[in-house]
Amino acid sequence: MKNRAIAEVLSQQFGLHGDSVSLRPIGNGHINTTMLLKNKQRALVVQKLNTVVFPEPEQLVKNAIKIEQHLENKAKDGGYNLAIIRHVTTVSGDYLVEIEGEVWRALEFIGGSYSEDVVDSELKAGVAASAFGQFASALDDFDATQLYHVIPDFHNLAMRIEMFEDILSRDPLGRAALCQEEISFCRAQFSLAQEVADVEAQLPLRACHNDTKINNMLFCSESNKARAVIDLDTCMPGYWLYDFGDMVRTFCSPEAEDSTNLANVRVREEIFAALVRGYKGPLSASLTDTEKRSFILGAKVMPFMIGLRFLTDYLDGDNYFSTKHSEHNLQRARNQFALYQDIVAKQAQLSHIIDAA
Ligand code: ADP
Ligand code: GN1
Ligand code: MG
């Protein structure tokens, strides 16, 4: 179906009237198809949900609504000051709309905001990390076990390794021959899975965001302050080390996640320090010493695990992440492995920064 026809169905369903309705893509997310649906009075973010990634969209919406309500209650008592991402219902009160077998939902557009893919200053790293810290802190008294596991084993490295080995053994597109070096590199890191499982066993289970990459928060266009934490689709029970690690992964390199300028892929220590301070601030009352000590492992494990997921998807024929060309996932994987190696090389300095904060 053409965009014009999709725009018409969505406008009717979500009650946007008039001839001036427009529909255009926004953002750089890798999973859903995200568009801005707009008329003179109203703007909505409409998303075609990726049902390969989220086979149970109803569960995803139920999780999000629970979190929205919790944050709204917090906001009433002054315990959460960021904008809250809100699902919008159709004229008949539903959250999901099916169009030719595809599932769409709508979110209130948070205007006067922008998202970024690379962090360009310590100030912004601190602002963004503090936003994710405020989000985590507001969920501190939220019972994580209420949430559906929309993607089971999302940050389970042992399972990610199994998936990688399984796809590699089938090598459906014959791409393994093109990435032998990366495959050997991955295999040499597999002991991380046991290391992280041992640490997890000592940590409290939290309601986590699980996808704290920099473009999943919005900055305010006028002030460059934090506006909102978005993309709540992977909020599930988990551990803060992964949320910390995903920020390190996406804030600290001066290069975008898919940059091929590997010589410049590295962790910027001053950005790392600003991130640690920004995240720790709102969490100081609840962060345990064991959790704080686990952060360095999160910083190592996330670039490695996401790199492994990109490589797995490359071998599988790019069925999971959206890609612009056939080498895209391989380029992303190489980039993430370069970042991982720099973090491993600087582990002592980075641990010191965490301890000192
Ligand atoms: P994906 O799951 O594919 O990553 P996201 O929910 O993160 O999709 O949305 C992709 C991008 O769309 C975000 O990075 C942001 O730029 C923009 N976006 C999403 N929701 C909103 C919103 N409610 N208001 C403003 N911009 C949004
Ligand atoms: C995906 O949806 P998006 O683009 O915010 C992915 C994350 C990865 C990230 C890598 C549901 O995040 O897990 O870390 O790409 N989300 C899902 O950039 O798999
Ligand atoms: Mg996103």
TrEMBL record:
Aminoglycoside phosphotransferase domain mapped to chain residues: 23-256
Entries under InterPro entries matching the protein: Aminoglycoside_PTrfase, Kinase-like_dom_sf, Pseudomonas-type_ThrB
Entry keywords, A to Z: Transferase
Protein name: Aminoglycoside phosphotransferase
Domain of life: Bacteria
UniProt GO MF annotations: transferase activity
